[in-house]
Amino acid sequence: MAAPGSSMIYSSLLFTVILSLIQMYKVKFASSELMTIVGGLICSLLFLLMLTFIGNYQELSGMKTGWGAVILAEIVSLIVASTVHRVCITTCFLFSAVFLYEVDKIYGMILSKNDSKARRY
């Protein structure tokens, strides 16, 4: 597992690269129905990267991560999606909800493994 500092740097770099690629190809993403859905999917990846960045920053700062990080990351990704196409906003929101559910499920599995290890010893 990556350290919070390096994970924060990698997520910010990926966020910047994907954001610039979305802005470069926003005409392509708005050209057809399928591409608007793909644009929403890519904007939801921005949500995931921004959530990773904020969570790692808060962990390094000693603060507790909560729903504020989720809302901020969602607002940023929806604003980026709105620069591409209106349908991208909706698909970005839906894909982000699925990603958030999956991240929560993975975190729950990791947390339960850590609890079971702590009980054994």
TrEMBL record:
UniProtKB keywords: Membrane, Transmembrane, Transmembrane helix
Pfam families found in the cross-reference section: Keratin_assoc
Location in the cell: Membrane
GO annotations of cellular component type: membrane
Domain of life: Eukaryota
Spans through the membrane: 6-22, 34-55, 75-101
Topological category with respect to the lipid bilayer: Multi-pass membrane protein
PANTHER family per the UniProt record, alphabetical: KERATINOCYTE-ASSOCIATED PROTEIN 2 (PTHR32001)
Family: Belongs to the KRTCAP2 family.
Name listed for the protein in its UniProt record: Keratinocyte-associated protein 2
Species in which this protein is naturally found: Carex littledalei
Taxonomic lineage: Eukaryota, Viridiplantae, Streptophyta, Embryophyta, Tracheophyta
